[in-house]
Write a structure and sequence with these properties.
Diverse_Catalytic_Enzymes; binds 2'-deoxyguanosine-5'-diphosphate; globular; HD_domain; nucleotide-binding; nucleotide binding; binds fe (iii) ion; bis(5'-nucleosyl)-tetraphosphatase (symmetrical) activity; mainly alpha; 11 helices
């Protein structure tokens, strides 16, 4: 076990073709951002490839893992968008044997960020998920340019726009997303 090809096959087996291809594009974009930011390309590749590994699991499975691993009890009040990274990291650890704490934390942080506590690898996966070559939203090219200039300014751009989107659509905002906004908005 342990080769990139084997990991790729394991991820492919758990996801729709469409979501697997997104994971391959996130891996590629994460490697590009890693080289621009002097971060280990292999860690970025693995984290990017596996970041959505648990996205297609049932709510029942996430709830079981929250209980079995004694994760924050408030997590039961959220849903797949919040669970697939934070709870998904536990599933990745158990099923894929990934133990690198930086990789697991980057998976946990990939949807909501983590305020002041984001490693460069977490920032890279957060941005690669948003900017991978298949993404096409108004402003994506601006966001890519900003992120090429300054990774942290990319994180700032994304969290500002995501929070505005969630509020406009009357979606609940996970506290960690707010913490990320409050930290990065002043950067
Ligand atoms: O898994 P992906 O679709 O590739 O992307 P993602 O993990 O960044 O985001 C998944 C979804 O989570 C996306 O529709 C936006 C949503 N999201 C991000 N932050 C929050 C959130 N949803 C809620 N309810 N609250 C949040 O704070
Ligand atoms: Fe995701
Ligand atoms: Fe994201
Ligand atoms: Fe993703």
């Amino acid at each position: 076990s342990g080769s990139m090809a084997e990991l790729e096959a394991q991820v492919a087996h758990q996801l729709s073709k469409k979501r697997f291809e997104h994971c391959l594009r996130v891996r590629d974009y994460a490697q590009k951002l890693a080289s621009q930011n002097q971060i280990d390309s292999e860690q970025a590749a693995v984290a990017g490839l596996v970041h959505d590994y648990a996205k297609e699991r049932s709510d029942a499975e996430f709830l079981a893992v929250i209980g079995a691993k004694h994760l924050d009890p408030d997590l039961v009040n959220w849903g797949n968008p919040v669970w697939h990274g934070i709870v998904g990291a536990e599933i990745i650890k158990d099923e894929l044997g990934i133990t690198d704490p930086l990789i697991l934390q980057a998976v946990r942080d990939h949807t909501t960020g983590a305020g002041a506590n984001m490693s460069k690898l977490s920032q890279i996966i957060f941005m690669a998920d948003y900017l991978e070559s298949g993404r096409d939203f108004p402003g994506v090219q601006t966001a890519r340019t900003i992120t090429d200039e300054d990774l942290g300014q990319g994180v700032r751009f994304q969290i500002i726009h995501t929070l505005a989107y969630l509020a406009k659509n009357e979606r609940p905002i996970y506290p960690k997303s707010l913490t990320t906004y409050n930290y990065w908005v002043t950067q």
